[in-house]
Design goal:
about 50% strand; 5-stranded antiparallel sheet; 2 domains; globular; mainly beta
């Protein structure tokens, strides 16, 4: 028995020493980035934070890049809680306890915080079976909280379903829900719930796509995942392509606008060729921003959704040593459109005013003391507030 205790003690000491080593290594790792202006105003990067992932050789890190400080979030304090939810947890500890960190399941404004949980194990259900959404609402003015379930029935057999967007209009909660059907097809539903009566007002399918090999249709939403607030308009597309081709060549792509106030759905016509050539799309308030790149320029197209008109496109030539034309890092936020693209060594950051169609800032984002090629995958751009 004494030998077993000695063995357990040795194993315990080894585990502690290894843990201390890795904690020290993680704490010792630090990054520093600089913003070197090419044109525009430095004030647009003074409070800018870029949340994303850094790849350097065989190392992958989650980082928050700022002008004065870059924070490594690969540590025990931050890795379990995304940045988006830290303030929510600090301000609403009891409400947030036990909830998932999926932005699509939340809505927040100045007076209320809403969480909607989808039903579990829907693949076990059959057509006609009942399922329920769990609603948790916090009245931030009265500090009151109510929880209730909303019942519905399946009209088709599904594998699972997910909530993609939540908004509140007057006293109604409106959900955009995607059904992944048992036969491989997909459907978008708009579900409207009366908060006073705590019951469904309506539930209707707004889009159905069928998938017959080798042709496949993809449903894509262009509203920002990280936006928990009110959005009057949702924009989505259905894209048809041949799944057997090595390169995903788009056969056709159609866009639609959903007015969440009136529940109207209207087609959105893009400028000639853009529905195929578009590499990036995002909704920011009253605007839809679509972008593409040519060998020489970046083209940014702006659509005023309320006025239903396209504005004059923004055209910006590529800087020297520009190498990547895929537009992987774009983001619409607070009236600005951010584009971060790869150069031979570093990255070029461009910030545009969506409404005015002007370039606010262009500069080089570089990692200090970089010893090898690195890559940045930006998930979100935000402005730091004190």
């Amino acid at each position: 028995m004494k030998k077993y205790w000695q063995l357990l003690l040795i194993v315990g000491v080894i585990i502690v020493m290894v843990s201390i080593h890795y904690i020290q290594v993680a704490n010792a790792k630090s990054y520093h980035f600089t913003f070197d202006k090419i044109s525009g105003d430095d004030k647009y990067v003074d409070s800018l934070l870029i949340e994303g992932n850094l790849e350097e050789g065989m190392e992958y890190s989650s980082v928050i890049i700022g002008k004065d400080k870059t924070t490594l979030v690969d540590n025990f304090k931050y890795q379990d809680v995304p940045l988006l939810f830290r303030d929510l947890i600090d301000q609403n500890k009891n409400f947030m306890r036990g909830k998932s960190f999926s932005a699509s399941n939340y809505f927040e404004d100045n007076t209320k915080l809403v969480y909607v949980e989808e039903p579990n194990e829907t693949w076990k259900l059959n057509k006609g079976d009942s399922y329920s959404y769990r609603f948790d609402l916090l009245d931030k003015v009265k500090n009151d909280r109510i929880t209730f379930d909303i019942q519905s029935k399946l009209n088709k057999k599904v594998n699972w379903l997910t909530v993609h967007n939540i908004t509140v209009v007057n006293n109604e909660v409106k959900l955009l829900v995607r059904h992944y059907l048992d036969n491989g097809d997909e459907e978008f539903y708009i579900v409207i719930i009366d908060l006073n009566k705590q019951q469904i007002v309506s539930e209707r399918s707004i889009e159905t796509v069928t998938n017959d090999e080798p042709l496949y249709t993809n449903l894509e939403i262009y509203n920002q995942y990280h936006n928990l607030g009110y959005e009057k308009y949702l924009i989505y597309s259905t894209t048809l392509y041949n799944a057997e081709e090595e390169v995903r060549n788009i056969i056709s792509r159609q866009f639609k606008v959903v007015n969440m106030e009136t529940n109207e759905i209207t087609p959105l016509e893009l400028p000639d060729g853009l529905e195929i050539d578009m590499q990036s799309g995002t909704v920011d308030n009253n605007y839809f921003v679509a972008a593409r790149m040519t060998d020489t320029d970046t083209w940014i197209y702006r659509y005023n959704i309320g006025q239903q008109r396209w504005l004059e496109p923004i055209t910006v030539p590529h800087p020297e040593k520009f190498v990547n034309k895929e537009m992987n890092n774009t983001y619409g936020y607070n009236g600005k459109f951010y584009v971060l693209n790869e150069m031979e060594k570093d990255f070029v950051l461009q910030i545009f005013d969506i409404e005015k169609g002007t370039t606010l800032y262009e500069g080089i984002l570089s990692k200090k003391d970089a010893k090898q090629k690195y890559f940045i995958w930006a998930n979100r751009f935000l402005e730091q507030t004190e």
